[in-house]
Write a structure and sequence with these properties.
By secondary structure, this protein is mainly alpha-helical. It contains two helices and two strands. Strands 1-2 form a two-stranded antiparallel ribbon.
Length: 84
């Protein structure tokens, strides 16, 4: 999934999160892309502060949860792959 957020007890939050102050420790990982789904993808494991900021703002301002956005994206990729 594009973005996962874990609450207390390690339960994944799949609904739209409530946004307050973000504090505490964080682990940020970028997985290598699946080249069968994105053959032109270039893997860059380093995040910039701007990239992290833009990602957080995108999901903060989205009307639906990050989980729903990722499912829709992955479904579109799967259907595109099947048509080719």
């Amino acid at each position: 999934t594009a973005f996962k957020m874990y609450g207390l007890g390690g339960a994944m939050v799949s609904s739209k999160p409530t946004w307050g102050k973000i504090h505490g420790s964080v682990v940020v990982v970028r997985l290598e892309p699946d080249l069968t789904l994105s053959p032109d993808a270039v893997h860059n494991p380093i995040f910039t502060k701007e990239e992290i900021y833009r990602t957080l703002v995108f999901f903060r301002d989205a009307e639906v949860s990050a989980h729903k956005i990722a499912v829709k994206r992955d479904c579109a990729r799967f259907m595109k792959d099947r048509r080719e």
